[in-house]
Amino acid sequence: MAIELQNNESFMEHTNQEVMEKGYDANNLDDDGHEKRSGTMLTATAHIITAVIGSGVLSLAWALAQLGWIAGPAALMAFSGITYFTSTLLTEGYRSPDPITGKRNHTYMEVVKANLGGRKFKLCGLAQYGNVVGATIGYIITSSISMVAVKRSNCFHKNGHQVECDTKNYPFIIIFAAFQIFLSQIPNFHELSWLSILAAVMSFTYSSIGVGLSIAKIAEKGHHVRTSLTGVTVGIDVSSADKVWRTFQALGNIAFAYTFSSILVEIQDTLKSSPPESKVMKKASLLAVLTTTSFYMICGCVGYAAFGNNAPGNFLTGFGFYEPFWLIDFGNVCVVVHLIGAYQVFGQPIFGFVEYQCSQRWPESKFIKNEYAIKIPFLKKPYYVNFFRLVWRTTYVILTTVIALIFPFFNDFVGLVGALSFWPLTVYFPIEIHIARAKIKKYSSRWTWLKLLCWACLIVSIIAAAGCIQGLAADVKTYHPF
Fold it and tell me: Which GO molecular function terms does the record list (predicted)?
């Protein structure tokens, strides 16, 4: 369960009470009072792939078009290497002080609090939950764009490619939100494995469809598009100012494509205690990062080769492809199914955080505490309804939906989320935790290069955020919601 602990004793008391109320066998509990975890390297890898290969992969052809054949693949490899390296540092903080037998830190915030103290703990909370909110909004936007693409694809097939087939996306945003209101009532991460595995399969499917369509486009007779070593050309494709801003935005899009550090600890908290969680999580992170980077290189490079400097912001919905329309439809349906799962993977940490905080603040409230068992046919265990959970999670889905309705700008929004979250969550806190745990001496060679990596990533994040803010500001001037 993704929750912040004020102290271990209060949490154990809360957990043991919940265990007795729900009738769990005390012999089937982990060392922290939770019901025994059953996660494996496979489920952890599926969770990571579900979180990582999402809306980010759809923008990579556009990102490479801005950066070109040299800087584009180099940026992908750099972000990949940094993400894996810092994820291995973060996994060690799950238990403290000993990484194998120490007390569990159930969330990213707890890891920071246990290793770095209270002030950085609060900054981590702001960064982590800000990233979670931004990512879930981005998933709503992306899903609605894919649903719109399905409707437009059928319209083009029926009426011809010259027809505008203009379709509003806000009805589809509302449809996606309705699904999330229902799924958000799943109590915690431990019951999401089936959804993550399904979503991971969908991500492979639509990525493969995009690559296949791109290859087919490259193989078309007479196909010729303009690409270059440095991406879009000043004076031909864009102005010099636009080139700079788009380059910054592209870095933000690539950073977003590797976003999973904010939920890494929560995923690690689903693993069985043997073998040690840190060892399993390192293997899962390596497998997931290698898998996603391979997909990213293929999707980005093949997509850029297919579309050239005019690559659309979303290569499955930008209508560089029109036929076969049914395959394009299927690919976009896979995007929607995947992001339904990804929304929940990212949303669970903030759901649990608010629920635990409220239960500690108002411990006598029946509205917050009481669980009501409902027997559902074909399920062994009853489903527990909590009215506070019902109201709070529904409210969260509605709020993120409203923001998505107001700012439905794909590339700018996902780039901004990536830029703002990459440095603090993927780079700064893991490095600081490692320095504290390993007691690395200040100004030593290891301390120096870790700090240089940290500052270099901060500069990249700042310029990426600046580019995305400029893009959002330009889009808002011409956009009329509803």
Answer: symporter activity
How far apart (Å, rounded) are the C-alpha atoms in residues 64 and 305? 10
DSSP H helical ranges for 92-192? 108-116, 118-159, 170-183
Q: Please check the confidence at residue 24 and state whether its pLDDT lies above 60.
A: no
Burial of 108 (0-12, 13-18, 19+ CB in 10 A): buried
Alpha helix ranges (H) inside 258-318: 264-268, 277-307
Beta bridge partners of 17: none
Provide the percentage of residues in the chain whose pLDDT is more than 90.
18
> Can you tell me which residue has the tokens 């203009």?
166
Phi, psi dihedrals of residue 35, rounded to the nearest 5°: -60, 140
What's the Cα-to-Cα distance from 109 to each of 125, 180, 330, 345, 412, rounded to whole Å?
A: 6, 25, 39, 17, 28
Q: Which two three-digit tokens encode residue 196? A: 């993550």
How far, in Å, are 14, 32, 115, 427 from residue 9 at the CA level?
Answer: 9, 10, 19, 31
Q: Which domains does the chain have, with CATH numbers?
A: 38-478 (1.20.1740.10)
Which pLDDT belongs to residue 320? 64
Per-residue pLDDT of 422-448, as tens digits, reads 888 889 999 999 999 989 999 999 999
pLDDT digits (tens, 9 = 90+) for 241-275: 889 888 988 888 888 777 777 778 888 888 888 78
